[in-house]
Amino acid sequence: MDFVKNQIVTIKIEDIGTNGEGVGRVDGFTLFVKGAVIGDLVEAKIIKVKKHYGYARIEKILEPGKDRVKPVCPVADKCGGCAIQHLSYEKQLEWKFQKVKNCLERIGGLENIEQKMEPIYGMEYPYYYRNKAQFPVGTDKNGRLITGFYAGRTHSIIENTHCYIQAEVNEQILETVLGYCRRNHISAYDEKTGKGVLRHILTRVGFRTGEIMVCLIINANKKKMVKIEELVEELTKIDGMTSITLNINRERTNRILGDKIVPVWGQTYITDYIGNVQYQISPLSFYQVNPKQTEVLYGKALEYADLSGEETVWDLYCGIGTISLFLAQKAKKVYGVEIVPQAIEDAGQNAKINHLDNVEFLVGKAEEVLPREYEKHGIYADVIVVDPPRKGCDGTLLDTIVAMAPKRVVYVSCDPATLARDVKILGEKGYQVDKVSVVDQFGHSVHVETVVLLSKLNTRQHIEVEVKMDELDLTAAESKATYEEIKAYVLEHTGLKVSHLYIAQIKQKYGIIERENYNKPKSENSRQPKCPPEKEVAITEALKYYGMM
Questions:
Q1: For residue 443, what are the contacts with CB-CB under 8 A and spacing of at least 6?
Q2: What span, in angstroms and rounded, lies between the C-alpha atoms of 39 and 129?
Q3: Looking at per-residue confidence, does 462 or 538 come out higher?
Q4: For residue 411, how far is the Cα from the chain centroid?
Q5: In angstroms, rounded to a whole number, what is the distance separating the alpha carbons of residues 241 and 211?
Q6: What is the C-alpha separation between 77 and 93, in angstroms, rounded?
Q7: Which of 181, 215, 318, 414 is flagged as catalytic?
Q8: In this model, does residue 510 exceed pLDDT 60?
Q9: Known catalytic membership, residue 414
Q10: CA 358 to CA 402: how far, in whole Å?
Q11: Which of 143, 272, 316, 336 could form a disulfide with 361 if both were Cys (CB 3.0 to 4.6 A apart)?
Q12: Cβ–Cβ contacts within 10 Å for residue 533, how many?
């Protein structure tokens, strides 16, 4: 049977897709139906047809599934923020757990992974949990200034000032800003023409401190915000108001925030806590949006890092140092890497206000900074923590992680698919998955956070296997000490940190046979850093200590 656009079909929903749509089949043809849940029998109108599947929307629910609930928000079916609010929260958690499990199995190639997965960590009360919101501003069909959230996959604003997953104080803030703008004829930005003033209203709320930030993103300079003192007077009546700023963004792009912050009243930041660590948060800062669940998430990361106080830890994609400072409470030294200079400045300030002097932050791309520091300075890591954006880790970065050979890698992810891809790559290079935690940071949305512990396969086990394989031809001297043991000896006796590369160079210099291809350059023309004299002496002493020369 051929299906066409606008055709009405009756369909039974059998599954949920990765974006929260109900999935069903009619005569073998798969349809994704927004707003449908497993068990629903619906009449649906086909809105798009592809070769092997299509998309449809509900016209009528004939029989509701047992897990269907009535959304608390009256615009939940239109707004793009809560794609699965019509699904019971218990079923949401079950689905998110399965989503992670399926990705790790199908993409990551991991068998029986559920045995290593902890039960999902859900919220006690999955409403009013977000500490940050970015409300687009526009006009309705009558030209009246409005705000709310975009409808799914569009830039059409669904008018709403009371969001059930945002901090409750936002409603008062939005009504105050809209009232001020309407009285003073401050126009909404028009994406089509590039004209107009007010683009977005950004809010942040410190859940532990009660501090509130309001930042208006404008397509103009401060002068366009006429009589802004009126707005300040009204906003400062709200208990907890701490920061009022403007952000200048004249770009004709979908980017929400520009680079320039203009102070209007109070501080340019608010503070909040995760556990015992205090953070300063500016309008430009990346900071997890669900404070209670973030404590769970970072708590698992800290648990998986298994720090005793003697470890060197690298935190990649560190943002304003949220995880770095959490780890620094129990590590000997933490290095954080982040591409955004402002975030690195914030991270340094956050280290100061928490009196943590064992943290160092580096600005740049993680996939560039880590290889540079490893190759040029011989840095090492006992534990590496990564918390990448949705696209996951760069291939060069994963190669460097493997070369550095940390005992543990803690991978924090907001995308199960790219997590699974990277876990598979690390698995092929000697790291096994030991534990998995799934944390619901974003109730009623399709997003989920995951923490995975990967550990380097046991060195002794590897040597025992390799000794049985004649082609590897391990010498007695080579099997006496591992690279990690040599590194530890050098650090303890000289205070110097040496890399695998430097150890390999000195072993080769004194005729200690290396396995074929170990630490070879990627090309004949590659230039590798040479071991400094003082480190050569230290490594030589270690080799003598272990009877390898």
A1: 89, 92, 122, 123, 126, 127, 129, 165
A2: 29
A3: 538
A4: 10
A5: 6
A6: 20
A7: 414
A8: yes
A9: yes
A10: 24
A11: 336
A12: 8
